[in-house]
Amino acid sequence: MMLNYYTLNTSTPALPAELYAWRSAIANLFREQSGWHNHDPDTGRSIHRYPVVQYKLLQNKLGIVALESEIEPMLELIKALPRTFWINNAPKRLDFQRLERHEFQFQVLAKPAVYQCDNWLPMNSEQFQAYSALCRAENLNPGNRQIEYPSLLLYFQQLLSEQIRWHLRGFGCEGIAEQLELTLLSEQLLHHQTTYHRGLQISMMKGVKIVLNINWPLHLGMGTGAAIGYGMLKKTP
C-alpha cells in the first residue's frame, strides 16, 4: 500500500519538552479538525486511532508530519505564518521553511531491517498493571531501571509487535500486518520516568533495537505519544 504524507519544516529551534505545548498551540487553530488534536469536536472525548498529524522536531526545529488527508489545514497554517505562538509560557516566532510531499510504500522485506528507538512509550495503565504482575511473578521490582530478564524482554517484544500491527491495520495494511515478524535484539532495555502531560509520569524506553521484516516510514512515530514525537524508529546498519 502507498502512504502519502507531508512534512512541514519551520526555522524555529525547540526542545522535546516543548512539543506538547506546540501541539496545543496549533490544535487551537483547528478545533473543528479532529485529526489535529485527536478529540471529538462535539464531545471533547479522545479518539483512539493512529494520529494523522504528528508534532515533531525536524532537524531540531519545530515541525509537523501529516498524512495527505490533512493537507488543506496544513496549507491554511502555512498561509498564517510567520506568527508568534506561546510555547510553555514563552513567545516563539514561527517562520515557514518548506513543505515536502513523501510517497511511502509499505512492503514485506526480503531481508529484514534493523531499527532502533530511544524514546518509546510502551505502556498505558492497563499494560503497566500486566507488566507489574509479570514482575511480581518473577520476584522482580517493576521500578527497576534496567530490564534484562528474558520473560520481560519477551513481553515488550510482543507489545511492540502488537502496536505496529495495530498501526498497519489503521493504514489499511491488513495483509502486511498479518505477515509482520519482529525480534527484539536488545538484551537490556533502559526505562525512566518522564512527564507526558499534566504531570502524568510514564515510563520511556531507551535502547530498543529490533529486527523487522517490513519497512517503516522514518518520519512517523509508533506507540503511545506518536502525536508528539515519541516512538521514532531509526534504521541502523
UniProtKB/TrEMBL annotation:
Domain of life of the organism encoding this protein: Bacteria
InterPro entries: Cas6b_N
Pfam families the record matches: Cas6b_N
Residue ranges of every copy of the Cas6b N-terminal domain listed in the record: 1-104
Protein keywords: Plasmid
The protein's name in its UniProt record: Cas6b N-terminal domain-containing protein
Annotated organism of origin: Haliscomenobacter hydrossis (strain ATCC 27775 / DSM 1100 / LMG 10767 / O)
